[in-house]
Amino acid sequence: MIHRTLVWSLSLACLFNGCQEPDHSLGSNPDIEHKVQSLLSRMTLAEKIGQMTQVNKDYLQDISDIKTYALGSILSGGGAVPAVNDPEHWADMVDSFQEQALATRLQIPLIYGIDAVHGHNNVVGATIFPHNIGLGCANDPDLVRQVARATAEEVAATGIHWTFSPCIAVPRDERWGRHYEGFSESPERVKALGAAAVEGYQGPSLEEATSILACAKHYVGDGGVVWGTGLNGKIDRGDTRLDENGIRRLHLPGYVSAIQSGVGSIMASYNSIQGQKMHGNRHYLTDILKGELGFEGFVVSDWAGIDEIPGDYRSDIKTAINAGIDMVMVPEHYQEFIQNLTDLVQTGEVPLERIDDAVTRILRIKYLLGLFDHPYT
C or N terminus of the chain, fewer CB within 10 Å? Predict the structure, then answer.
């Protein structure tokens, strides 16, 4: 309760007195990197895979499964709210899940995620802001930064650590159903406003009581899907038919600026690029994002996003993890996911080094968020 009160006090000080420049580095803190490697060395394969597993709260068969499977993350998808939808009950609910995580052998805290995309829009009484299309019309990075900061303060006050925002799509066709989630069709405007949103959510430091983890999405090219290539012959989850130069020119700049602003997580997209599903695209997820751009946070799948990859579920998991997905928003059949990934590692089809890289990235962010020191609201 004390920490929850501090959230509101610090939020007012930040709004009226200004905040220091954010720390944009993720993997440069030697103390945290040492802690990550020390913890990783003590983890079993089951505990590592648990960290890579994200489950929707309403799909938990029992709350004790968080402890049983050492789950690393829980989320609230649409409608997954507490019995009483107010800030106090949200905080109590998240804390009850955290209690299960801290009862595990290594006491690794979970990270709770939600779509707070235009304010804390899941909570009754929260401040609601315009969607990105409206903020893009204002074209004011300082305003976007303030909106994200205010949203972070309200999200943090309900015990939640992570928002699946900002959407830095560059929409090219108004028929795309998520067109309103993009700031603009201009890559330069998206680049500026997306970076501002990241800085607002994450604040001067991720360990601040009023800071939450941002998630730039959906990587990459989601706004460039072509009509007739998607579900039911329409556009949703369709194909972005651009060569790499086109992707770099139109859809990648927002991610470059988000990484420069220190974004801690990036969500993969449902779309394909030239026929290849993004959730299985190693070139874009690993070679470009983690290699060329130097992203040191973790990549999370979209809701059941790996299921979009052609093949059976086992092969979907293999393709996605090897491509560079670090945490899978399962979100329902988590026991099946865990069993399949365990088998894939034991048979050598997914290298243990890939698992260790994914878990390193997840633990790094949890330490940067201060979750090991302040796991509860």
Answer: N
CA distance 369 to 264: 10
CA 330, 343, 64 angle in degrees (round to 5)? 50
pTM of the model: 0.94
Q: Is residue 96 within 8 Å of 375, Cβ to Cβ?
A: no
Q: Is 143 exposed, middle or buried (0-12, 13-18, 19+ CB in 10 A)?
A: middle
Rg (CA), the chain: 19
- CB < 8 Å & 24+ apart, contacts of 227-235: 227/173, 227/175, 229/272, 234/175, 235/173, 235/175, 235/176, 235/177
- For residue 297, give the DSSP letter: S
pLDDT band at 11 (very low <50, low <70, confident <90, very high): very low
The one catalytic residue among 302, 316, 326, 357: 302
User: Which pLDDT tens digit goes with each residue over 99-113?
Assistant: 999 999 999 999 999
One DSSP character per residue, 317-375 reads: HHHHHHHT--BEE--S-HHHHHHHHHHHHHTTSS-HHHHHHHHHHHHHHHHHTTTTT--
277 vs 291: CA distance, rounded Å: 19
Asked if 24 contacts 262 with a C-beta cutoff of 8 angstroms, the reply is: yes
The phi and psi torsions of 79 (rounded to 5 degrees) equal 85, -5
Quick one: which of 250, 254, 275, 273 has its CA closest to 263?
254
119: domain CATH number is 3.20.20.300
DSSP 265: E
| Full residue range of the structural domain in which residue 98 is found | 32-38+52-368
Residues 6 or more apart whose CB falls under 8 angstroms from that of 233 comprise none
* Token pair recorded at residue 257: 């600026």
- Domain assignment present for 1: no
How many angstroms separate the CA atoms of 233 and 227, rounded?
8
Helices (H), 18-172: 30-41, 45-51, 65-68, 87-101, 132-138, 141-157
Rounded percentage of the chain residues whose pLDDT exceeds 70: 94
∠ CA 176-181-183 to the nearest 5 degrees?
110
Number of domains in the chain: 1
Q: Is residue 47 part of a domain?
A: no
Q: SS3 for 196?
A: helix
